[in-house]
Design brief:
Elements lengths: L1 E7 L16 H12 L6 E7 L42 E5 L19 H7 L2 E9 L1 H14 L3 E11 L2 H14 L2 E3 L3 E2 L2
Parallel strand pairs: 1-2, 1-4, 2-3, 4-5, 5-6, 5-7
Helix pairs in contact: 3-4
Length: 190
């Protein structure tokens, strides 16, 4: 069996200066890059928000729970991976949210329209470590879907950045309740 690292949404729009910046995002990207090179994972994949027309996910008056300012629009600079991400170890990229919210990396597909769970199963992956942005949204959803798929899941919290303390705390409760192993402390500005 094999172990994979899932790098969630380390994109320009989610880092300082981006359309939907998470404080500490850029520092987390650099830490992920340092970790991923030589981490000992059998596979490394990345997910990305890649919105085309996600409907009510975009709003001029966002509630910052289910609706958000425009971000990570397919083909725009903000949808690109942060320049500090070392992409060398990344074997596949899974784009999500083209026509939906797309919180979980397991909603995404690679350039061959293959789902993340299918890609992992083809390689015998039975364990994943999840890192990235944001702890309380896409990292949470990806980790929960990994567990639901029967994959032993750990979130390396030191390599995540969260939007707010209350939503991060709620996400950590959800992850613990689902049987996700949590290691470290997330970066949270407030």
């Amino acid at each position: 069996m094999a172990k994979a690292l899932i790098v969630v949404d380390v994109q320009i729009d989610f880092c300082e200066g981006g359309a939907l910046a998470v404080p500490g995002g850029a520092a987390v990207v650099a830490a992920i890059s340092n970790f991923a090179v030589g981490s000992g994972h059998d596979h490394v994949v990345a997910t990305r928000d890649y919105h085309i027309d996600p409907g009510a996910h975009f709003s001029d008056e966002p509630d910052f729970v289910r609706s958000w300012p425009v971000h990570c629009v397919a083909g725009t600079p903000g949808a690109a991976f942060h320049p500090d991400l070392e992409v060398g170890p990344v074997e596949a990229v899974f784009s999500k949210g083209q026509y939906s919210d797309g919180y979980s990396g397991f909603e995404g597909t690679d350039h061959q329209s293959r789902a993340l769970v299918e890609w992992l199963r083809e390689r015998g992956v039975d364990q994943v470590d999840v890192v990235g942005i944001a702890t309380d949204h896409c990292v949470r959803a990806t980790a929960l879907d990994a567990v639901e798929a029967g994959i032993a899941t750990t979130v390396l919290l030191d390599l995540t950045a969260g939007v707010s303390r209350p939503t991060v705390d709620a996400a950590l409760e959800d992850l613990r309740a689902a049987g996700v192993r949590l290691v470290g402390e997330p970066v949270v500005a407030a």
